[in-house]
Each structure stands twice: as C-alpha cells, then as structure tokens.
Amino acid sequence: MKAQHGIYLDGAWRPAASQDEIEVVDPADGQVIARVPAGGAEDIDTAVRAARAALPAWAATPPAERAARLTALRDALVARKDEIAETVTAELGSPLPFSQAVHAAVPLAVAGSYAELAATHSFEERVGNSTVFHEPIGVVAAITPWNYPLHQIVAKVAPALAAGCTVVLKPAEDTPLTAQLFAEAVHEAGVPAGVFNLVTGLGPVAGQALAEHPGVDLVSFTGSTAVGRQIAATAGAAVKKVALELGGKSANVILPGADLAKAVNVGVANVMANSGQTCSAWTRMLVHRDHYDEAVELAAAAAAKYGDRIGPVVSAGQQARVRGYIEQGIAEGARLVAGGPESPRERGFFVAPTVFADVTPQMTIAQEEIFGPVLSILRYEDEEDALRIANGTVYGLAGAVWAGEEAEAVAFARRMDTGQVDINGGRFNPLAPFGGYKQSGVGRELGAHGLAEYLQTKSLQF
Ligand code: NAD
C-alpha cells in the first residue's frame, strides 16, 4: 500500500521529528502493509503553531472562497474514490463493495454539503439593536477513530474549514493511510498552507499532546467514552470547548403492529454492517413477548446467511475484546442462536456474526458497547417496559422504532433518550444533526448543526 513517510505540515509533507513508526496491518490476514510516522509532542507543537499562524488569514477569507476550496476538496476526493475504497479495505478490512458504497461515498456527500453550507450560511444576523457575527472558534484539534475512517475526518474538517477554522488532525493509529489520502486531496484542493495539518501518531502520545496543547481552541473528538471523558476533563481545566462523539448501545424497538420480518432483517443488517463497528448500530433488538420466538428465529437465520461475507474486525485486540464479550454473554446465561466465540477463519481478525436470545437488560452484553458483529435480542411485556429497557443504559446515540402506524413509532421515539431515531427503516440523512444524549457525547455533527460547533458569536450593539 502506498504511504507517505512524513506528516503534512504547513502545506507540505515533511519528516516527523519523532523517529517512531506505526505499522499498518491488513486485518484480513494480519500482514504489515505500510509504515507511517508516529508523531510526538514536538510534531504536534509544530502543527498547532502552523495552524495558529494560518488562522487570521483563513478566518478572514470570504465564505464564497471557503466554499470554492471545499468544492475542490470534494472533487479531489471524487477523483480518488477508488483508491480511497481500496485503502479502507486494506487497513480496516471492510469488504470492497461496502468500502465503495459507504466509506468512500458518504464523505463525498458530507464534503459537498459543507461546500454548499459555506456559501449559503448566514455568518451575520440582526437581533434587535445588535448585529451578531458568527466567527470561527479558532484552531481545532480533530481526533478521529478508525471505524469510518474518512467519514469521521470529513465530518470534522469540512465544517471546521467552512467556518473559517484551521485544523490539526490526529487520525486513529489503525487507519492512517486513509487520512493521508485525505491530506493529499486537501493539498490538491488549494487549501492554503497551515490551514490543515495532519500528524499521524498514537493516542496516548500524539492525541494527548494535541488535546492538551494550549494553542488549541476546540477539541473535536470521536471515539470511546473512556478517552472522551479524559479529554473533556483536560479541556475543562483549560476552559476549552469540546465536541465529543462517543460510544453507543442503541435500541431497535419493534412494536407489535410492525412488519416483523422487515424490522428484524434490517435490524440484523444494521448490526452486521462494517462488522458491527458502528457507533450508532442497533445492537439491542427489543421485541414484544408475543412475537419474540418468531423474531429470534428470523434473526438467527438472517445472521447465518452472512456467514463469511462480513469482513474482519480491525485488529487482533478488537477481535479478542469482541470474543471476550461473547464468552461473557454465554457465561451470564444468554442463549446463543447464531455465531459464537470461535473465529470462522484461521487467518485474520474475523468474528462470526453472532446473535444472542434471552438477553436481560442488566447483562453485560446488553449494557456495554461491544463494537463487533453481536446482536442481543431482549423481550418486553408492554410499551412502558420497552421504553424502560430502551432508555436503560448510560448511552443515547441512536435507535430505531418500527410500528404499524408511523405516528405510533414517532410517539415512542419522542420518549427515547437518544439523539437519532430511524422510523420504520428511515434512511441516513447527511444533513441531519448527529450526536449523543447522556454519555454518548456533547455537541452535534453534520449539516448546519455541525457547522455551529465551529463558530462562536460576537454581538455588536448599536
Ligand atoms: P478510542 O477512543 O480508542 O480512539 C479514538 C481516537 O482517540 C484515536 O485517534 C486514538 O488514537 C485517540 N486517543 C486514544 N487515547 C487518547 C488519549 N489519551 N488522548 C487523546 N487521544 C487519544 O476509540 P476507537 O477504538 O478508535 O473507536 C471506537 C470508539 O469510537 C467506540 O467507542 C465508538 O462508539 C466510538 N465512535 C463514536 C462515534 C460517534 O459519532 N458517536 C463514531 C464512531 C466511533
């Protein structure tokens, strides 16, 4: 796999000060496919200084010029979409058709949406005797995970650039090659030097140095709740703004009048996509007791059909973690109806598509984020019981409701403590705000709400 041997600083690829390297591994066979720099605190410092130096000029650019750069960025990503899909497949392991249809395609829509928003958003408004300016918040530290490597980057960098902020990106150590392709696209798009900088590196080294850097005005983090908590504490002590997109344990609530087969099949597909490594996956399926046995049968059959077709999980560590949860589910008394802890292949970090029935709300597999292809099916007695179970975790990122009548599903969704709910299989909308209630996060990404995270207001009174 093609890799840059430097970090992207102040408009060029330059050698990192740190001599350390990250080995990039293909999860399908465990082989090392590339090496990239593991930047250190000195590299982060240089990158933040470059971003700060570039800030005044970029912040003062007319929004139409920022929109033009974002359009060029979208076009540069379009030109590389095949390379992006192949790279995501190589370092994340997702099957190529999924990499093409989702990993490479969704970021194009998001980048395009911010090109349009930069051009059309009102960065100035009148409120009584005041004029309110929406100004860029400053230098943004973007720290991203590996599960949707390009989407997570674009969902931060595109609105930040649209707002007039400058950025230092520290992508996940498992998927740095996709981040390098993104940096190449930024370069081609003619974004001025220093506006965007990329430092590949380890979380506790480069990530921490970036989150702690006094030259950063906003830390926008997507990842685990454990790391998010630490970042929020550091930022809080420095009175620095944070945006946090964290873990999830979303409920797929199937009400009695729903099309059961559709709800179950879509629900299983939702959990198995990306090998279960989706923060918003509906990993708890809630079914009324009258339909429970039928739903379990349908889900087991649907999962079995996936067989080998899902890709591996991202790393050996992730594979061990997911298998540990499956073993814990069995030990706590859940009934395995598909898959299990044995790896379906000898090589690579594969986990079998797994379904548990007779899961009770307090079991570990019903409470904790597994981040693998594992579905838990829970039984409820009535709607109030379903609501208690749906809301009964520390998370609140997403969810789904299925009902015979749309209005019934909407009424239930309005009572869920969660940031996004798909009604009867509603489609992903890249303009709708995405983000968590409770411990799933702080702030929102995507669309105009995502742009607002990177702006602060200044009011002038007349
Ligand atoms: P992670 O928290 O381990 O890592 C995320 C990023 O933070 C990586 O770039 C990592 O290098 C960095 N990091 C790690 N330790 C750090 C530290 N001490 N200081 C600063 N940065 C540090 O998460 P992950 O395993 O890469 O991703 C999986 C998690 O991300 C899951 O919990 C998932 O739910 C969550 N996620 C949430 C969303 C969302 O939008 N809410 C989206 C995708 C993933």
Detailed description of the structure:
This protein has 462 residues and is an alpha/beta fold. The protein folds into two domains: 7-246 and 439-461, Aldehyde Dehydrogenase, Chain A, domain 1, CATH 3.40.605; 251-429, Aldehyde Dehydrogenase, Chain A, domain 2 (3-Layer(aba) Sandwich), CATH 3.40.309.10. It has helices at residues 41-59, 63-79, 81-92, 96-103, 106-120, 149-163, 176-188, 203-212, 225-237, 260-272, 292-306, 316-331, 364-367, 383-390, 406-413, 447-452; strands at residues 7-9, 12-14, 21-25, 32-37, 124-127, 130-136, 139-143, 166-170, 196-198, 218-222, 241-245, 251-254, 284-288, 335-338, 354-359, 374-380, 399-402, 422-423, 441-442, 455-461. Strands 14-15-16-13-12-17-18 form a seven-stranded mixed β-sheet, sandwiched between helices. The protein has a six-stranded mixed β-sheet with strand order 9-8-7-10-11-19, sandwiched between helices. A three-stranded antiparallel β-sheet has the order 5-6-20, with no helix packed on it. Strand 7 (139-143), helix 6 and strand 8 (166-170) form a beta-alpha-beta unit. The longest helix has 19 residues, at 41-59. It is globular. Nicotinamide-adenine-dinucleotide (NAD) binds next to helix 8 and helix 9.
